[in-house]
Amino acid sequence: MRKGLWLVSAVLIFTMVFLAGCGKGTVKTTEKNQEQQNSNSALTVKVLDIGQGDAILIRVAGQTVLVDTGDIDTRDKMVAYIKKEGITTIDKVIITHPHADHLGGMIGILENFKVRQIYDSGQTGTTALYRQYLSLVNKKNIPFTVVTAGTEIVISNDIKMKFFAPEKPYLTASELNNNSVVAKLIYNKFSMLLTGDAEKESEGRMLKTYAGELKSTVLKSGHHGSNTSSTSEFLKAVGAEAVIISLGANNDYHHPHPSTLKKYEQAKLKVYRTDQDGTVSITSDGSTYQITKEK
Ligand SMILES: [Zn+2]
Prior knowledge:
single chain, 295 residues, alpha/beta, Metallo-beta-lactamase, Chain A, 8-stranded mixed sheet, 7-stranded mixed sheet
């Protein structure tokens, strides 16, 4: 009798736990799907393998944002990559500064995609490339906004970009790099700091003005891993878990600098680099994130 009762109870408890488990699982999955729909699905950031330069493709909430456009000689490669993604319209293009390794692909972007809005640092260049860029933007009548520190771009309810540089008046000590646009892409708990070619001077200024806001999950290495950027103080304030260096293999500048790599190691950053890993993709649902390498 006792034995029988125990058996019945055990079967009953097992069945209840099993059913409860199944039910819970199903509800959880449904909730997750709804949450994903509400927050307009996942964020994807691709640091494109376009040789020595920067081109970062962000897709989220039905919008496409391109931060920098690589150099002139990799223009066709970048355009082909973006086309392959099925993109025909780029909602926002941000040019961090008018050096060729950031602005070089812009003509290809303007000629091949509908661009809704352009943001740049407001610094002017003296190159033919820069003049061609401006005249094409004027010709196509694309809205153009100069970004300064403190600006925010709202992408959706829970996704925005906050700008920490350039701060006015511009830093003049080492020309265009130090007045690069620096933006933090924020999606709930996940964030990524996009630094252009900002160097020590700009990092120092951001530490003074935005010390409490620099903290980011992932860092785009400043100035292709050069030793002119990534001070220990700056890395500490950002407190990232991973850093992505955008650079070309065997580049003329010998980027990344060994001392910078050493600092990344000391800061316990997981290092990704486009010259070895190919395009580096980061996906996030606003809480967790994943980084994948092409190679
Ligand atoms: Zn650069």
